[in-house]
Amino acid sequence: MNSPLHLYKAEFFKALGHPLRLAILDSLRDGPLSVTKLQEMVQVDQSILSQHLAKLRSFKFVTARREKTTIFYHVHDTDVYIFLDLAKNIYGRQLQLSQDILNQLNTTEHI
Amino acid sequence: MNSPLHLYKAEFFKALGHPLRLAILDSLRDGPLSVTKLQEMVQVDQSILSQHLAKLRSFKFVTARREKTTIFYHVHDTDVYIFLDLAKNIYGRQLQLSQDILNQLNTTEHI
DNA sequence: TTATTATATTAGAATGTTCAAATATAGTAA
DNA sequence: TTACTATATTTGAACATTCTAATATAATAA
C-alpha cells in the first residue's frame, strides 16, 4: 500500500477537491484572467484567492504570467477540462441513482 | 461562488483524494473481492479498510453484496477507470514538465 | 443458545486543510 | 525616494479528515 503513485494521485485529486478551486478553473475556461478579474468572478477575499491559486499552481493546473503589475492566470493544460467534464458523467450517474431512489421514496405512499 | 455543483464536485474529488481509496479501486479492477481479500491486498487494519470502503460506498464508487457471511465489493460504474486513467494523462504531463526542469537543472554546470 | 467469523460503526486523539488577518514583495509612477 | 496598486506569503485559529482502539452487528454453525 501507499505506492508513491497512489500518494501522488491522491494529492492530485485533493488539489481539485475544493469548490473554490473548481470555480477558479471554470472561470478560466474562456481564457486568461487577472487576479483582480478572477476575484470579481468568484467573490472571495484577495488573500484566500491567492492561497488557492498557489495550490493550483503547485500542481500546474494553472500558470501565471506577469504583465506590468498585473498577473494573468491561465490553465496550463486545457485537457483538464475534458477531464473535469468527464467527472460530471461519473457523478451524474451516481446522483441520478440517488435521485431515482429519492423519487421512489417520495412517490411511495406508505412513508 | 460555492454553487451547489462545485460543492458536490469537490466532495467527489475529495472522495478520490486518498491513497488507500485509490488502491482499493485499483484492486477491484479485475472484479469483485471480499473485504478479507481486499485487506490482504492493501495491507491495512480491518477497521481502516472498512471506513474507507464506507466513504467509497457513500459516493457509489463501490457497491457491496453479501454472500452468507462474506461481503463482496465491486465498482459500481466501471467508467470510473476510464476517468482514473485519464487523470494519469493530466498529471503525467505535469510531472513530465517538472522532470524536464529538474533535468535541466541537473545538467547545467553552474549550480 | 453460545461461539465464531466477517464486517461495520463509534469516539476521541492525531493530523491535515482552510480561513482570516496581518504583513511582505514587486512593479510602476510621481 | 515615496506612495500606490496588485498580488503573495505567513501565522495561528477554526474546521475537517484520518487513525486507533474498542465495541457493535449480522450471519452461520455447533
Automatic annotation (TrEMBL), chains A, B:
Domain HTH arsR-type: 1-95
Keywords, in A-Z order: DNA-binding, Transcription, Transcription regulation
Listed Pfam families: HTH_5
InterPro entries cross-referenced by the UniProt entry: ArsR-like_HTH, HTH_ArsR_DNA-bd_dom, Metal_resp_trans_reg, WH-like_DNA-bd_sf, WH_DNA-bd_sf
SUPFAM superfamilies (alphabetical): Winged helix' DNA-binding domain
GO molecular function, one term: DNA binding
Sequence intervals crossing the membrane: none
Name of protein: Winged helix-turn-helix transcriptional regulator
